[in-house]
Amino acid sequence: MPLNRRFRDVTRIGPVQIGTANDGRGREKHTAACTAPRCGFSADYDSRAAAELAARTHRCPIR
Questions:
Q1: pLDDT of 24
Q2: Distance CA 26, CA 58 (A)
Q3: Which DSSP string do the residues of 2-62 spell out, in sequence order?
Q4: Among candidate residues 18, 26, 24, the one with its CA nearest the CA of residue 45
Q5: With contact defined as beta carbons under 8 Å apart, do 36 and 60 qualify?
Q6: Which pLDDT value is given to residue 19?
Q7: 53 — phi, psi (to 5°)?
Q8: Entry pTM
Q9: pLDDT by residue (tens digit) across 22-44?
Q10: β pairing state of 42-45 and 28-34
């Protein structure tokens, strides 16, 4: 069954978008995902600060 998340509080830092959603157990998770073509970076974090730090330090391997 695919995961259907409803993101709220979506922001963008460079090519990386950060969104907040609840996981299947009701806990709040923060996702950082790069929107650059062929990059493929995305990760879930427990805190918003960690997701924002990942977005600020992310460097796409594809140039």
A1: 83
A2: 28
A3: ------EEEEEETTEEEEEEE-TTS-EEEEEEE-STTT--EEEESSHHHHHHHHHH---S-
A4: 18
A5: yes
A6: 95
A7: -65, -40
A8: 0.84
A9: 988 889 999 999 999 999 999 99
A10: antiparallel
| Residue 59 to residues 41, 42, 51, 56, 63, Cα–Cα distance (Å) | 10, 12, 14, 9, 10
Query: In the chain, where are the structural domains located?
Result: 8-57
Cα–Cα distance measured from residue 50 to residue 61, given in angstroms and rounded to the nearest whole number: 21
pLDDT at 2 over 70: no
The sign of the torsion formed by the CA atoms of 25, 26, 27, 30 equals positive
Question: Which amino acid appears at position 62 of this protein?
Answer: I
